[in-house]
């Protein structure tokens, strides 16, 4: 077997393992369906193309063809280069190479090094440098994987690092600040709606002092390795180094790029820290948590298993149930946590967290799985905060609203981890462990959008019924609230038709909302660091963004500020913006419609169709963070998750009862003067009305009863202010009930009815 592998290594030279490259193979293997056109180039660059040698005047000569890809058009550049090769020289530093090493068989690599942190912002802007930049908005600090550009090219927030056009030897440099074992690079092109720019091949160099550099070598030839890069702007392409290198600095040197475009890229570096026994460098910050929880990514089966384990560990406070199925038949599991799971207790509010609406935004999913573990463990330990929370609140955790989308993202990572198709190197891959799917990279290989939609291609956050438009039209006609209610708007007829484009996941969540009297909710997303609140849809038709507040603007701003103010990452004064907007200027909260319009959002639907107040929490710049970042993300969000749940105690709460029978009145309307949005009581007559501190005039009304009004004061003290009502039946209602029961009409009721007839 070793002889076979030696032969394979001889006939299959490679620069490492390249994952995600379309058509481009490892060094020495050309794409079978390309055309070639020799073009001279002054830049001293080699390529992933063929190398041929000849003799002229006693020296060997190599013809190096460089592939530049533009859609289906490929241009080959040809130049001459004398050997033995001299060390490549960049514009700013001399370069030396380490001794060439030739391997008959690839040693077992360590591709499991986590991301260094360009995408997650653990790498700061001042750790990035470049040979040149076209503008500040295209500076090295923008060369982060998955970074998104603003709408305008040329502003301060462009979508990549781009070298100047006249820069003949461009490079992007990362300072790890500590001795680091570099094992791989992931690249993308430029994110832009106006331009197409991406690098098609690059070299890699390393240094310990930023002055003396050595390159990554091809095992078979000993030449500098040229790595195949991108063939479109967005697909991430992973290259593992032939041999991991220990250094402080790493440089990416683009060799070729799209014809007519610029040398632009976004990148993430895979790197492991190296011990520093002499203490020559500052101590590496440790990402971690003191909580002993399951910090890893969970696919559907692992998620289901973990939820079952939590239920078995804490059977008295947990219940696992399903609210429906996805398009692919995966169940939408919910973990209920309360001191009386399975039943609604009179006066106990219901709250929920929903995650995974977009399947590739995986952090919310893992945070809810961590939250249920944490609540179970702390309850068993007798933690007073958790004990009170579970005694006074019924909590529902839906970690994956879009399990099909998550599985797509999860499998995509595993597929790319296997590497490109290669019939002759399966044995070597088996030795390297590359035939097993490893979802260790997180979103570094998933990209920005894959797995976002459900299996039908529906964006679930645009799939709820648009109740905003009929409400606003009725308000413009002066019909609200006398003719058209300002709450619990019914589903439009078109939305209930059998052929309506409504995802099964959406229908399941709507039925869940209608079945349980939720008061408070948060929808966990990823890709930014901000809390957005309703309305999410702009009131002006076709407006891309516009401040569109609800009547409960004060409450929503309070709720948003509570989460943002207790989230460690959002409160970091030194953090930089994720993409193109600095939300820290606004306290890390924003009105959803003032950010970008989202018709059919779950937040707006929840507010207009039910009693529930819901915000969206964008948890992290990285949608699918690496597993080693989960402990820190948990610490960033743990207190915020608990504090937000406790806000259900803010405002007033009570029970609306029949004055004669003391029976709770269901569907009674609770109206607050000055706020054009009402809530209703649950089936037992209990209600909760979120309000900020202040004095309020509150009216309770129900069909067949006289309305009652009272003053209620909300203070800053913890706990809802009791505000109960006893309603008296109207004479007509009492008469209906007596006649229905076959009883005689009492004399006092008969006299009152006669007086009413006389008035008419």
User: Rg, please?
Assistant: 31 Å
- Roughly how much helix do the residues carry, as a percent range? 10-25%
The overall average pLDDT, rounded, is: 83
Decide which structural class fits the backbone: alpha+beta
N-to-C span: 104 Å
Commentary on this structure:
With 760 residues, the protein is of the alpha+beta class. α10 runs antiparallel to α13. Keywords: Carboxypeptidase, Glycoprotein, Hydrolase, Metal-binding, Metalloprotease, Protease, Signal, Zinc. It comes from Physeter macrocephalus (Sperm whale). Belongs to the peptidase M14 family.
Map the helices and strands.
Blueprint: H1 2-11, E1 17-19, E2 51-56, E3 59-70, E4 73-83, E5 128-130, E6 161-162, E7 172-188, E8 199-207, E9 213-215, E10 227-228, E11 237-257, E12 264-273, H2 300-313, E13 318-325, E14 331-337, E15 350-355, H3 363-381, H4 384-392, E16 394-398, H5 403-418, H6 426-432, H7 443-446, H8 468-476, H9 504-515, E17 518-525, E18 530-533, H10 553-566, E19 589-591, H11 592-595, H12 602-609, E20 613-618, H13 630-646, E21 652-658, E22 669-672, E23 675-680, E24 686-689, E25 694-701, E26 708-714, E27 721-722, E28 725-727, H14 731-741, H15 747-759
Name some characteristics of this structure.
760 residues; alpha+beta; eight-stranded mixed β-sheet; elongated; metalloprotease; CarboxyPept-like_regulatory; signal
In short:
The protein is an alpha+beta fold and 760 residues long. It is built from 15 helices and 28 strands.
